[in-house]
Records
---
Amino acid sequence: MANSEACASALELFNSITTQGEHVRALKARNASKDEIDSAVKMLLSLKMSYKAAMGEDYKADCPPGNPAPGINHGPEATEAEEDFVDPWTVQTSSAKGIDYDKLIVRFGSSKIDKELINRIERATGQRPHHFLRRGIFFSHRLGSNSYHDSNCKEVSTYIKGDISFLPPCFFRWLQDVFNVPLVIQMTDDEKYLWKDLTLDQAYGYAVENAKDIIACGFDINKTFIFSDLDYMGMSPGFYKNVVKIQKHVTFNQVKGIFGFTDSDSIGKISFPAIQAAPSFSNSFPQIFGDRTDIQCLIPCAIDQDPYFRMTRDVAPKIGYPKPALLHSTFFPALQGAQTKMSASDPNSSIFLTDTAKQIKTKVNKHAFSGGRDTIEEHRQFGGNCDVDVSFMYLTFFLEDDDKLEQIRKDYSSGAMLTGELKKTLIEVLQPLIAEHQARRKEVTDEIVKEFMTPRKLSFDFQ
Amino acid sequence: MANSEACASALELFNSITTQGEHVRALKARNASKDEIDSAVKMLLSLKMSYKAAMGEDYKADCPPGNPAPGINHGPEATEAEEDFVDPWTVQTSSAKGIDYDKLIVRFGSSKIDKELINRIERATGQRPHHFLRRGIFFSHRLGSNSYHDSNCKEVSTYIKGDISFLPPCFFRWLQDVFNVPLVIQMTDDEKYLWKDLTLDQAYGYAVENAKDIIACGFDINKTFIFSDLDYMGMSPGFYKNVVKIQKHVTFNQVKGIFGFTDSDSIGKISFPAIQAAPSFSNSFPQIFGDRTDIQCLIPCAIDQDPYFRMTRDVAPKIGYPKPALLHSTFFPALQGAQTKMSASDPNSSIFLTDTAKQIKTKVNKHAFSGGRDTIEEHRQFGGNCDVDVSFMYLTFFLEDDDKLEQIRKDYSSGAMLTGELKKTLIEVLQPLIAEHQARRKEVTDEIVKEFMTPRKLSFDFQ
């Protein structure tokens, strides 16, 4: 017991150093003042000294206490991976393969979704795991003590909270189906308003347009509630109460450490993490769950959103609520390469749901970063590189057929398949997907949106 | 023009120094760390140096730029008055007469309610000014460009926002009557929850009890809306939107300067000033005012609440709303003397609405600080001191008859009236006041409270 406590506190120190390191990088990234950076670096060094004093050895970024020897790579690559920067607003890496997700798991202190867990989920649900799970697109989790992977998973009182901005929604639909649980989708239009140069009406307008896209993905209206923060705060007897509860238990020091806020940030930004966190607790939705606080929330999100929910999981026991469980996905890569995540503000950075067949073709052909060789001859001889080829990465998201995908991987790697052919395959997968989506979206009337966004009872099975 | 701009910027600097000085005092008052205090003092000194460089002379606390020579008192008393400390949570002075309110007007940059303004209000309303105005209990204002004191005041689109905790509500009733406007009463139960060791339910419970006392004062239900923040946030389509708007336009640096928050404060406290501010804008109450944003808010409050509304007035033009107008009152003194304001948590610090006739008698006799002499002989010879006598101060609040009050002042000052007799007079004024209040409060049913706290249309005259 004493030993495991010592471990926990060493781990806490380790995590503080990690967080402080991220903070320093964030300061540098935004060209903060020398004073600010110096003082953050001083704090970092002092934490590292405490760590050495406690552990008898230097802090190593990829070697948390109680986790001996990740071994293999302590050389230049370790240093390079340390350059990855991930927070809710910025994702950057210098590697064309994208972020080193295994290192992120270590740094964030989450757990890997391994083959065994996927098998257990398959046994528990009786369903073939979604290809996002099979292919490691969801690669990390914080499932803690809940039992999604136990045989009684259907009886777990759970709801799913989604923030769908950068994730293909099919995975949410799959989860909702196999667990048969309610799904609440938070649209943080207040965040958009606080961070961007928008009016409230514009921010809300975007949320409604977003809702149409979500609805067009075919969610069951009896099990799905979509809400805008700006709208729902004034309709829910429970939401604001949870916001205040969370806000009471998080200090500015904490959000400064987690999100890199500074004294010049607006008090709106500073207090926003509590708004993001509150829907993780079921009594934020009294219309759905009454005053029950024991229903656990499962949050599938891109890994860059993890800081919000690390904070939420810290706060939960302090205010008597269960910790939300998390499933982390990789980033949907930008067409230009996996160094950054796609950006909604750059029309060429990704395929959008509004794109025409022609735009899709042009974008893929023109902008999708290729892992092919410089000449056809070289390509035929040495083969292409699927690890950095964005068209191939997109296929892992959108092509459900495992055999076909594997065949493409082999053919492209061997040089049998040329870049033009790979891109053509992707275009032929995307064009009907997007066209069907657009057709379904046209059917989504304002009345249907209103219905989805009206607080009401949802149907669910558990007690 | 250039000249007045220079003045404005010197005044800004002056105000920054004042604010920073208050911040230093706040840090000292709460025994902040040496580092924190040192860094705040350093900032203060640097501001003072900038001021001297800009103005060619030293910063003097009671001599703002463009306001030549308050003259009379630059000696020890000026220093003493500088020791007054006033913010929303702490009011302290070393003088038994209480805070030097004239100095506060200079320091806060508000305006004095003088005889001329009172006469204009009398002419405009056709009503005798309330004794709180006649006697200088409301002593300061920020009425700006509105026209409460013009002949057309009845046509001004105004509502009154009250935070009644430490002010006898009769003044609000008088204002509501003479201007015939809606009154909204904000009960900041979220603030109580954030600052104190209470549950949400407890904080809300106190708010409801508080509402009963307010209702018992006889407010017109057709013109009065009472709301708890915790409750109303989830019922108003407009409140949260205004909160976010305000939060976007206020930085942590600003609330740090105004309220003395530190990095260790909860993000709830840090963002709370926006909650306090939002009801100053009429579209926070769509049930009452629709989406109108042009209706001006008049806020009578104790002067220690001014920082919230200085902030609100700063933000208002940035978000396209009219600035709220303010009337500032002195503090209701503690029985023990005017050095501090009364505290709800110390039962002997004031007369409470729940006190029995006997408790009133005992408290006044035992705890009310006396301005009388040590012996009857001395008292008869030299007279008592009304300026420090708390019983006399209470009479200025509760005895409406000016002639009678003046007679008491004369008799006590001359020594014709003894302290026991003065206290007896106060007891005889308070006992029926409180007893009547208690009788009326008993009539306030839960249904009536619910009605007052239900968002709904209110009646008003203006266009």
Note: Residues 113 and 140 of chain A are 5 Å apart (CA to CA).
---
Amino acid sequence: MPRFKAIIQYDGTNYAGFQIQKNGRTIQEELEKTLKKLNSGTRVTIHPSGRTDAGVHAVGQVIHFDMLHPRDAEKLRYALDTQTPHDINITSVEEVDEMFHARYMSTEKTYHYRVDRSPTKSPFKRLYTSHYQYDLDLDVMREAAKDIVGTHDFSIFCATGSSVEDKTRTVYEVRIEEQPDHELLFIFRGNGFLYKMVRMLVGTLLKIGGGRLPQDAIQRALESQDKKMTGPTAHPQGLYLMEVKYDKPLD
Amino acid sequence: MPRFKAIIQYDGTNYAGFQIQKNGRTIQEELEKTLKKLNSGTRVTIHPSGRTDAGVHAVGQVIHFDMLHPRDAEKLRYALDTQTPHDINITSVEEVDEMFHARYMSTEKTYHYRVDRSPTKSPFKRLYTSHYQYDLDLDVMREAAKDIVGTHDFSIFCATGSSVEDKTRTVYEVRIEEQPDHELLFIFRGNGFLYKMVRMLVGTLLKIGGGRLPQDAIQRALESQDKKMTGPTAHPQGLYLMEVKYDKPLD
């Protein structure tokens, strides 16, 4: 059966997350419903590079799936794009080797986290940023962010409910950029991230920036696995899965 | 009774427009519901600078209303802001002379219209721009836009259903700007605009830019009132009421 890799975007606002579940609409459900119609009524199972939570967005999520019959990739992209709801966009579809796996073979992921620092909460940003109106010391936050980079056991920054056993991850880069219109952009790049890890790191960095945790809180949290050295989990609506990389094409 | 002027923002996505109506939630309804609670249970009627349609947004809509008792303006703003839904934002509240009228005394309005020209429709822009993927000749559109400026009888650019008798308006400026991320921004500034006038003008300019109407179509439409010289009404989600000006403060 031919295997396809697709890059997709979605506005996570109206979804209960990526993965199919009993209560609430999900991205997977919408995509599989459409793919089934395009696959002569036979069910198609979608495998994402990783799940995203309710309210979390994606600009470059990667999925793979198998179809019964060969298909022209661009025609498949167009059919999938036009037949899924407007808040899901199919950026590209390509046929790949049957050994390709969107989750197990990913080598790098980039997440963005947008914080709106306007004095009042904008109605246009409420679903796409997290609002934070207090003072922040960006220099202190940038110093603290350096402690995230490298290979660490990130168990303390993993929410309960994860079934992953090995909680060691390598973070290549953490950048904090000031953007126009009172926005702060956090950029995380690494070989993988644990359940809610980015949001817990952002929550901790904001608490450090506001002076309510010491500058070396992240280093101490990683060393001692002490929960008191971490901040709250930042809201889902600021988070974007931007890009997933694979070492080399297999096809 | 003290009169208050307020500047408000709203994301029009989840509303059936500004004005109270039988079917569907409206901005006016939400604001009046909250104001009634803040006014000892007595109904407060809101007067906007003008109505906006379903899906249309506002960054600087102006309203006025009367309260039974004197109030601290900033405390009133805060109460109104926090007790209305997240997609409505109260930017400012000030007490004004009892002769002030948000609609009759406005002297200038600015509207923006955002067009997304990306090859594919972005899930993040679907509610905040109108998508247009075809080629456009911006020079021709900018020439055509000059025919809008000035004092004209704009009846041909007024949707049916308007009860306004005098359809003469003065447009001070029409600008078409290229923005980052494949966006086109239309800026309209005038002493007032008729029902759906901005959206009909944008629809006509796009049709001119696409070569499906002559460059002088607007001039001919205004002269002959010929409907064939106009384009379709552009979608509501690209439209923003940006600012309403009043000659001088009365208080």
Note: The first helix of chain B runs from residue 27 to 38.
---
Amino acid sequence: MKILSFFERSSRNFRHSSPYSKFLVLLAVSTGGGIGLVAYSDAKSDHPSSDTKKKKVVVLGTGWAGTSFLKDVDCTKYDVQVVSPRNYFMFTPLLPSVTCGSVEARSIVEPVRRIINKKNGDIKFWEAECLKIDPKNKKVHCRSNHSVHVDGKKEFSVEYDYLIVAIGARANTFNTPGVTEHCHFLKEVDDAQRIRRSVMDCFERANLPDLSYEERKNKLNFVIVGGGPTGVEFAAELHDLINEDLVRLYPALHDLVKISVIEAGDHILSMFDKRISSFAEEKFHRDGIDLKTGYMVVNVSDKEITMKEMQNGKVHSLPYGMIVWSTGIATRPIILDLMKEIGQANRRVLATDEWLRVEGCENVFALGDCATIQQRKVMEDITAIFNIADKDNSGTLTADKVKKFLEGICERYPQMEIYMKHKQVSDLVDLLYGPNGKSGTKELSIEDFKAALTEVDSKTKFLPATAQVAAQQGTYLAKCFNKMEEREHDPEGPPRIRATGRHRFHPFRYRHLGQFAPLGGEQAAAELPGDWISIGQSTQWLWYSVYASKQVSWRNRMLVISDWMRRFIFGRDSSRI
Amino acid sequence: MKILSFFERSSRNFRHSSPYSKFLVLLAVSTGGGIGLVAYSDAKSDHPSSDTKKKKVVVLGTGWAGTSFLKDVDCTKYDVQVVSPRNYFMFTPLLPSVTCGSVEARSIVEPVRRIINKKNGDIKFWEAECLKIDPKNKKVHCRSNHSVHVDGKKEFSVEYDYLIVAIGARANTFNTPGVTEHCHFLKEVDDAQRIRRSVMDCFERANLPDLSYEERKNKLNFVIVGGGPTGVEFAAELHDLINEDLVRLYPALHDLVKISVIEAGDHILSMFDKRISSFAEEKFHRDGIDLKTGYMVVNVSDKEITMKEMQNGKVHSLPYGMIVWSTGIATRPIILDLMKEIGQANRRVLATDEWLRVEGCENVFALGDCATIQQRKVMEDITAIFNIADKDNSGTLTADKVKKFLEGICERYPQMEIYMKHKQVSDLVDLLYGPNGKSGTKELSIEDFKAALTEVDSKTKFLPATAQVAAQQGTYLAKCFNKMEEREHDPEGPPRIRATGRHRFHPFRYRHLGQFAPLGGEQAAAELPGDWISIGQSTQWLWYSVYASKQVSWRNRMLVISDWMRRFIFGRDSSRI
């Protein structure tokens, strides 16, 4: 009893926040008689609170972008308010694991209020959906999204000085008929839980008496549309669930199960290195997962999915038990409305500049999946660039002039650097004047200058819609906000091209830290920085450790690890809850 | 990596069932660097399978009664089929803990197929709802209850030789208007999860901007109707959730929260000993939980709950944020239909005899909350009893004759024993002839006999609708089924009163093992066998250990314990999922 009382007291002290650094060693006593030691540390800084005339920053969304902004923004400088229909942050890369019960939904979510609490509670959170962004009046209109009855005022509006739009995207159906009605998506916790129930449903249905062989088979036909990382990971998880756990509970049904992955392109995981893509395809073939590459889904009815062979236009139909639709993302309606208002109506995705500022309205920032950075093109600014470099207005550029101007140009136009790498030259002078031009006296006219750089913009890179990009953008923006006043007088960015002086901040630059593709059966593939490729079981262990370490809190980390342990020991659960 | 590979291999071996007893020591490696040892053992017997002409036993329901029957029935003797809309067994006593996140829903459920698998898979399970019991044709009509689309045949029927009805009961609303629409019940996993979301909803709603003080207060008014063990435990859990965890996340709202318990009787926990009931009431007063005893709810609207003071008939209204309705159980419609068909239409609850056989139809058994045992009354059989005892038909009974007949009479009529205890006599002779009548020659006429026993039946005990009763009934019935053939020739029960010979089996006798009432704040009360009472923190630890040990599988046990640990360490989660 003494140990337990100590334990309890410790845990209470631990949970009630103190401003000091905490360190707690927990004696974890289990009935099995074993003792486990877990080390825990958490640091917390003490901010003095001052509420005088702080500018209002409103953050929409609690996904990767919104949450990393929140974690890093300095609340003593701004009055931060968060609006989101989800009062938690979700670790999306583990969502496919939730669908099959390798990890519990609750383990990968962290309440926003816990994150806020770590910042001394200076952030307000409203659980509501944003209905409309009104950039003219600097307001957002919101509605509480509670399922239970609400009396009186449901809607309210929040004023802002700065607005951070980080509401993510919706699933893209490409307007295929029947998809919304009959397919599962995989974007939210609810989706994952529904998929999980649905898998169990298919097995229980196929197991009912009085069914023909064909009927049983159709019910156990699992179809995944989209061969991207999410679809592939779900297919792999499902295969594991069935072969490791369900086969023993439904032995008669095992041979009837079929998993199909439908992909319009020629390969699955096409965004990865070819070696990974081929490895995945081979593994799936070995596992008996049916890969239908080069097929486009044209219709989904309540019983069948219809697809067209891309090569010859032949149409095939496939009865199914469950479909998971995972073909990419599309813009949310509220963003489309905003785009109309600010003159971006002809675009498909909301555009921001390289500092994440929404083009066409002031003090509104957009990050994560809901926007793309519209990289300024070199050719658009080519005359201005030439004029700046040509300080004496001689109408021509010498290598010397270019050298002086080098600084900042590659930061402002990152495609320049990629183009130079592509051309295998080391700097701008080499590119413009050739390998021996450095010491020469060759002078470039504006036409020569344009001609040399005409293909640069073809190397403009668009950022992928991943958690990594969103998180980096959130952190970047928070840092900018924290230094806003300072940088007003002491700008750190590259020189302005179409104006004088410098930009306040460096533009956002994405650092790719690698990407995983778990393939099931304790196999994974990974693309690591520096074009490294890693495939196999060790990569799966790398996956475990990276994903455990990337959790936003120690709580999540412990929960996720203990979920993995539970799965190792007891297998996945088959209860339909 | 070596440790991990060992771990993985072990776990696979472990999970793939082998017919032998297993023992596995797991090295639980966590990132914290700690090592935990957990001992695990599981035994499994090897039954030879023989499918020749076995009688069909159909079990309806996978609750306490159905599952304990399944666990103990000998599948080599019967062709067992189970029909239930729930493909899992749920440990109901922990359901109130799920509502507030002290325990996860998944930890307290065990898939039926896992239980079946331990019996070598000789049991068939159909995930379906039973729509109609047809005792004339010995059939049950069922319908698959899947939420996803089902093609073709949804309904099917199952034939039986023996039917075990164990489908439980529904919540009793006493036909109070508005209850079904606006209140939460607490019977299923879904209910608990909905309540959990609803609590978080209330907090998030009360926290929205632009609300008045009154509006916030109303939204944080949590009302529990019914002061039984479930209602009281939920109130206690809710109080703990709010005071231990939510207070830090919503500091501004803490003073607005109010928890009320409405009970029509004079006391809460009235089925417990008075000391427990008073202790609970005092603790709730200290905790600031509003106890409204002596109030009956008469109406529930979308905003207010209306109740009548029992003493003076005054009507009060109370605005609320959430109501949990927990006032007892009522008979399910399908059972009411069956009752009409078998001549029990004028009863409120399905009646069985003391061997759990449904009165009025053959080979149908009912157990758990869906039926009550109709104890045969002594006075109904009084003449038959007298005649049997009076072997020589002299018309009078001597003490000797009664002594010979003693055997069996108390088993057949357990109220006799309670009555004797009440009268403080040690046996039947003392009761009939007085303390000195044993050696006397006093002879009893049938009128004397009747007069002496006329109050016996007032001591008939009805069994409470608890998990304990249901589980014991399931085990009892399984044992009867296992010995069915044997007992045909060698009956073990008491002598038949209105026929010759003996009953095949002993009638069902309930052994009360005690009952817990967790009261929150690490305090619990317990009624233990032998009229012992235990109250306080040590009782809470007893509660932890009893509930951990009572889990149906090692898996559940470990999950529940690790949930408790998680709660101790990290507190409860406030995410709205």
Note: The first strand of chain A starts at residue 22 and ends at 29.
